[in-house]
Amino acid sequence: MRRLPRIIKIISVRSFTVRTLWNNGEVRDIDFKPIMETWKKNQEEMYEPLYETKIFRKVAVSPEHTLYWPGVYLKITFNGITQEVPLDLDPDVLYDQSLLIKRYDRPNIGLLLRQARENAGLSQSQVALNSGTSRTYISRIENEHSDIQFDVFYKIVTLGMGKEVKVSIE
After folding, report:
1. Which of 11, 23, 57, 59 could be cross-linked to 19 through a Cys-Cys bond (beta carbons 3.0 to 4.6 Å apart)?
2. What is the pTM for the complete model shown?
């Protein structure tokens, strides 16, 4: 199942372009000028407050990991009840209309583990037995079908393979 991209944080706001960091490791620019042109063409009046630079620059990331504007509300009527809700935008639409600037690729931990295991001349079953995990779990990690927590990674490398873990942040 594909994880839907959501906004983690706003990096910068320049004019009507918002640079964002997404949970898939991508930095993307969302240029609102063409989006606003579509809103004007379709006479979508609810977005008019965002045409003002001062209001637009107050953009923030909502708890749902999309963009919203604090203090800008829409009136929504559902089942005869009208209420005000914060103006926020669909993250899928924002993603589709954004431009990729940079991608942060995560390291292939599964490949690293497989290479280390094979270089040590060990089977998945041996590593699993030594580290207190299962062969299936080792296989899932090596094939990038499962995430791994650092403490489990450490246990697999040190106990399962008899190797040393060195971590470097540069």
Report:
1. 11
2. 0.63
